[in-house]
Amino acid sequence: MEKINYSLCWEDQDVLIQALNIGSSDDVLSITSGGCNTLALLLQRPHSITAIDNNPSQNYLLELKVAAIRVLTYQDVLAFLGFKKSRNRVEQFQKIKMFLSSDALAWWETRLDLVNRGIVHVGKFEDYLGLFRRMILPLIHSKKTVKNVFTLDSCEDQNKFWDTEWNNRRMRFLGRIFFSQPVMSRLGRGKERFVYSNVHNIGKYYIEKSKRVFVDIPTKNNYLLDYMLTGTYSSEATMPTYLREENFNILKSELHKLKIVTMELGKFLTRAADNSLSKFNLSDVFEAMSVEQANGVFKEIVRVGRGNGIVVFWDNLVHRQHPVSLNAMLATDFEKAKKLEVTDRAFLYSNFTLEKIRK
Hints:
By secondary structure, the chain is of the alpha/beta class. It has a domain of 169 residues: 3-Layer(aba) Sandwich (Rossmann fold). Helix 3 packs across helix 5 and helix 3 packs across helix 6. 41% of the residues are buried.
């Protein structure tokens, strides 16, 4: 059985929400991953949303998050997931397990140690970041310096902070090693994510890309950077959309619209009916696909998607785009994508693509 690769999503939910512009008539397809983005899209009150992942453990993770939201109070959900301290997560699991599928229940009942840790901290990638926080970051910066990242009042202050405090020699040296392909492929991301990459010095690439979120994007409300450096969200005010208290009851009321499917994306699309979906959150799913595989997915999206539907995805180390043979049916909205990309609080990705289906 596959392990959880991501217990959180690492795309900016606000960018995703603005890009898809979901309405009450939309039927949405969303890559599950850590489940966070799917829950954020559910808050937009679509007609339906299907979460899909080829890794069953990712879907079991989403099932457990949904069960917690369905049964527990807001504060108990934060504690159960792992964003607050708790001594009774396993007890809480016993309260909510009746809402899990039989497969998910069997999987989690043999992994109560993960439940006890807090399920937002148990992904391979989150473990990798935890190792960075415990072993590498203290060699580079003091706790005070890390805390100061989230107290800066302007991009001008952030730029000065980057130049004078953050981007020192130890950060550049140790960061390049820790975020290199050999280390990351062993500890953080699957090897399949690097098969089609043309980036030679990945550690250097990521360190250089991180400058944008330290300099150009306000750090005070960057929940992605917050978790990466602190292992949690420092305050409820800066939490991602789906975790905010003001949205909690709305999210509860929308859970019945969610369907979870374990299947390879291409296979799912070939089985889907014509014009059955209108919005597509594809995360960075193309990164592990060859050009031929990606082209096949784009072709099926055109068939399955409705006219004026929207498709969004991110590139990380691999660039993908629809084939020119589909230009008449898929139009890339470069202007809107770039406008949203400027506000994107994630730095793992190299490109954000927004496409509209023309029928």
